[in-house]
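USER:
I wish I could look at a protein chain and see how it folds. I am handing you a single protein, as its sequence and its fold in token form. As I understand it, each token names a local backbone shape. I hope you can help me see how the letters and the tokens relate. The protein I mean follows directly.
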Amino acid sequence: MKQSWWARLAQLFLLAVWTCMWLVQGCGPGPGYGVRSRPRRLTAMHYKQSFPNFSENNLGASGRAEGKISRNSERFNELVCNYNPDIIFKDEENTNADRFMTKRCKDCLNRLAIAVMNQWPGVHLRVTEAWDEDGHHPASSLHYEGRAVDITTDDRDTDKYGLLAQLAVEAGFDWVHYESKYHIHCSVKADHSVAVEKGGCFPGWARVTVAGGVQKSLSSLALGDRVMALSATGKVVWSQVLLFLHQDQESWSTFLFLETEDGHRLALTPNHLLFFAPLCRHHSSEYQAQFASRAKTGDCVLIHTAQGQVRPSRIISVSVEESVGVYAPLTEAGTVFVDGVLASSYALVEDHRLAHWAFGPVRLLSSFNQLLLGETRKDHQTTDSETACTETPFHCSTLAYNADVYVNNDTLNKQDGQSQTLRMEMKEKQTSNVHWYARLLYRFGCILLDSSSFHP
């Protein structure tokens, strides 16, 4: 028995090492595993086009104006001066006003300066307007807060401006507008914006289906609960909640609201991954995980119906609203049905497969904890057959569904019977922050991946 335990531990250790090696290969230079091939072809923006396709002061773009900043106001300390030698500042007022901007705007501008030099060797980024202290813009302009810039290339070649706009999107500006034939307008959210500080999440009132067929809000979901998800093979399964990548019941955030022709309504942050396709395909493998901000009317998502079927449904409207509570449960399967719509557990990086592998150590640790605590399920193969509704990806029979209800309830009751108090204590100890492992992966990703891998 002792030798068997150590043999199992050795297997888990080797698997963890192999996972880390895979991540290094996948995140490093070159094509790697699970990383999109490079170089990626950029598509130039058209004249008068904006990204995202909202107005600038919309919550899904750069957000509302917060008031003019003057040199003698307290908020002037929020601005920083950009002395980047690779950027040409027009500064026609001779006051260095065009160099003042928010930190987020400065970071985006510096990334764009590098992208411009890489795209056109010998060409530099040129800023024609940044912070405005003279009142030359409309009252709601973000130029008054140092959150907006007007840019060109220093050679003033207008043929480059369409691609320059797309490079600005890739550099992380929250709103980019090919505003004029003579410049590109870019802006960012306020530095203290909730949307800047948080990852991808769902609101607390969003509901998931737990084992037993019961609907449960994300705010009441607990670690160890089994929720309805879709496996990599296209089976509907009950997948355990391992942790919350983000959990905060009080914070407000900006959510996209997607409504389908079948009456499903999903709310999630723009940088969360959602499975959808331009055409209503008939197999889950044809649905790609992309940022929710890319969703538009006419695209199709996967929904789970009351009859136990999983099928495509077309998006009929996309809107933006603010709501309270931000929750991002991580499941073993890496997916979850939220309000009946299939979504990924991951956000920020537009590669579901890479993200799922990156969280492999979390799944290993969960298995290891179950091994030590004697909380492993009776029979792994039996559980797979119990939780999988059917081999067919878009149908779940009523008989199989009912079997899942009774079997999983029995399993959960045995686990919960050990200590209901322990479950409550675990819930209370969870912090209202992004999980430390998710933060760590994001920092490594910023170093190892190019900026185009992240949400704009």
Q: What stands out?
A: The chain has a mean pLDDT of 76. The longest strand covers residues 236-260. The radius of gyration is 24 Å. The chain has three domains: 1-33, 50-192, 198-453.
